Amino acid sequence: xxxxxDHDMTEEDLRHLExxxxxxxxxxxxxxxxxxxxxxxxxxxxxxxxxxxTYEGPIPPAAEPVPSPAFPIPEIQDLSASPxxxxxxxxxxxxAPDSPAGPPAAxxxxxxxxxxxxxxxxxxxxxxxxxxxVSTRYGRxxxxxxxxxxxxxxxxxxxxxxxxxxxxxxxxxxxxxxAEKERHxxxxxxxxxxxxxxxxxxxxxxxxLEEPKVLFFFTADSRVDFRELVKDLVSVxxxxxxxxxxxxxxxxxxxxxxxxxxxVLCCHGVTDKLVPVSxxxxxxxxxxxxxMKISGPCGRLLCCLAYEFGFYREARRSIxxxxxxxxxxxxxxxxxxxxxxxxxxxxxxxxxxxLVVDAARFSQVDGRWALKDSPAR
Length: 377
Description:
By secondary structure, this protein is of the alpha+beta class. It has helices at residues 83-91, 111-118, 169-196, 227-237, 248-255, 266-269, 279-284, 291-294, 309-315; strands spanning 3-4, 9-10, 39-44, 49-54, 64-67, 122-125, 131-135, 140-149, 161-166, 201-207, 213-219, 240-245, 325-328, 331-339, 344-349, 354-358, 362-365, 368-371.
């Protein structure tokens, strides 16, 4: 068991900060088929979850016209390959073919081609902030368009939702009315929880737009028997009631707040999925294993620890680990410190020399680390 003297804490002391399954390695695979275009990122406002969606219906003239992408997109057809392809995409809802993505060789510019390029059709897309109706995992509800996604990365086509239609003025008016109802429902539910003395904390309440159902989100340390509470709420609201128990990280995402960096919590304003974070991520980034410094307001490890973990993991493959020994300049040296962002490695020799060398100078020969001959400081 490793113990760190600067704060007298062990890895086992910090295990309660991890999420379940945090040590499981995430494996991302490239989808075997092309993704549709255009892709939008939508936000579920009541839970602050985001997801990808596509829309094939009519778009009003007020929408923002943008040119078709002129660069290769992973698993997405390059619509600027030819005017015919762009026109076909606009007429048929822009469904991507099964052919692999990638622009063809650029032809020699001519006067005719220049004129055709200037008249190339543009793609009309939904503007940021537009409300649309989508079938979410909670039910059919309004979601807000956050923007156009040009490079979605490794996304499975099964994860992409379909936008049913653009919200009307009546939908937006009903949304405003539901907001007032949600405040009343939250108060009523809190009172019922207090009367029945249930060990649960109510987080939020939400009315679905096109379904007679009220969602209540709560947190609890263990499973709660809320059957009697549901009966009380049904007698008050006369509609379907659904209670969902969420974790502390989901609570932080719903409520929001300010992080130690001074910005809005990533789970509330940036992250689309709550990725499990482990102590190993903090260790690989040479961070102090102090629970006050590496945990967020939710009491779990900071989400931002996972952002650069892939970079550190790849960079460390070409750098000897701390404690590694190798011979250079006729002296045995040992790695004492690694600075991955700066690409520097501090080494100490048996002759008393302490040097800082570039990480790019290291290489492995027959499983042993070696240092290339060049000036060091």
